[in-house]
Amino acid sequence: MKRRNFNKLLTSAIVSMGFNAKIYANNDFNVKKSVKPQRLKVGDTIGLISPCSPIPESRYAKAIANIEAMGFKVKVGKNILNRNGYLAGTDEQRLEDIHCMFEDSEVNGIWCMRGGYGATRILDKINYHLIKDNPKVFIGYSDITALLQAFHIKTGLICFHGPVANSEFTPYTLEHVKNILMNPTENYLIKGCSDNYEEQTRPGFFTSVINKGKARGVLTGGNLSLISALTGTDYEWTTKKRLLFLEDLEEKPYRLDRMLTQLKMTGELGRANGIILGIFDKCQPPNPDESLSLIDMFKDRLEDLKIPTIYGMSFGHINNQFTIPIGIEAEMDADNNTLTLLEPAVV
Asked: Which of 146, 163, 175, 261 could disulfide-pair with 119, CB 3.0 to 4.6 Å?
C-alpha cells in the first residue's frame, strides 16, 4: 500500500477512535517554497519553551532577563519548568508548548530555553500545518537542530540557528541576532569574532582553511550529531548546491570522524557547494599521541571533496556566536573567514 493512502487510512482510524488527529505529523507534507517570518520589533512578545532538556531553575530568571533586555515581552510555556528525567516534561507536554506558542496570536516569536536532548522524540507528532499557517521566528541550536530542520523541510519556514535564551548574550551575539531578526539587510556581512580567536590557546578556538575559495548556496545545517542522527529519516536534509554549516561540542575526533564518514557515504557531503565549520569546543583528543588532532581529522575527511571549506567560524556552543538563518541564500569566503547573507531572512 502506498504511504499516502496508508496515512489517510491511519488518520481516519485515529479520528474514529476519538484521538486528536492533528498532533500526528503528515510525513508527506514537504514544502519546497521558503516562508520568511515577520521581523521582530521592540515590544513584541516572545514565547519561551523548553522542548528538549529541562532548564535549571538557576538559569530560568537569566533567560527571561536576556530576552527582556532586548526590548521584548515574555510569555512562558505552561510546561517550561517541568521535568521528566533528562527531559523537560513528557513528550506530550513539550509538544503542547510548541503548538500553543505557534497558535497564540499574541506571540510574535518563539525562543528555545536550551538544547540537550528530546527534540527527535516529538518530530512525528508535530502539527506542521499549524506551523505553516502561523509562521514565526523560531530560534535555538544544539538539539534544537532537529526542530529547525523539521520545520523548514515540512513547512518551508526560515528558522534560526542562534543563541538559546539562557546563552551568554555578548555584544557580538546581540549585534548579529538583532540585525538578522530585527534589522535585516541584503548582503549582510558576518566576520568572525576577534575575541574567539584571541583564545587561540584554548583548544578548538582557531581558524583553518581546509579548502580555499568562495561558494554560494542556500544555508543548511546545525549540530553534526543531530544531522547524522536524522540521516535516513523523513527529516533528512539535502545538501545539493547548498552551504552546509556544522558544529558540535564535547565529541572526540573519532566520533566526529564517524559522523562525517556516514554523511560522506550517503553522498551528501560531496553535493554541497561549500562547508562551514564552527568552533568545536572541547573536541580535542584527551591523548594526542593516540588520535588525530581535531583539524587533522577534518582535513582527512573533507579535503578530498575539493569544495571551499573552513574551520572556526564564530558559531557553536560558544559565547560569541552569530545567528544563521536556515533556508536563505548566502556566500562564504573561506580565505577571509566571512559569511554574507545575500537576502533578508525576515519580512
From this structure: 146
127-154: b or e for each residue (b if 16 or more CB lie within 10 Å)? bbebbbebbbbbbbbbbbbbbbbbbbbb
Can you name the CATH fold of 28-167?
Answer: Rossmann fold (3.40.50)
* Alpha-carbon separation of residue 259 from 56, 128, 224, 329 (angstroms): 30, 28, 7, 26
Which residue spans of the chain are classified as CATH 3.40.50.10740? 28-167
Predicted pLDDT at 3: 41
Q: Give, for 311, the enclosing helix (H) or strand (E).
A: strand 309-311
Out of 19-33, 81-95, 146-160, 269-283, least confident range: 19-33
Q: 3-state DSSP call for residue 5?
A: helix
User: Which segments of the chain belong to CATH 3.50.30.60?
Assistant: 185-341
pTM score above 0.85: yes
Q: What residues are annotated to the active site?
A: 142, 247, 317
Which residue's C-alpha cell is 486528536? 20
DSSP output for 129-188: HHHHHS--EEEE-GGGHHHHHHHHHHH-B-EEE---TTS---HHHHHHHHHHHTS--SSE
pLDDT over 90 (residue 8): no
CATH superfamily, domain 185-341, is LD-carboxypeptidase A C-terminal domain-like (3.50.30.60)
* pLDDT tens-digit readout, 13-33: 333 333 333 333 444 455 568
Strands 188-191 and 338-341: antiparallel
* Cβ-defined contacts of 150-153 (< 8 Å, 24+): 150/123, 150/126, 150/235, 152/34, 152/326, 152/327, 153/30, 153/31, 153/234, 153/235, 153/237
For residues 164 and 226, give the distance between their C-alpha atoms in angstroms, rounded to a whole number: 16
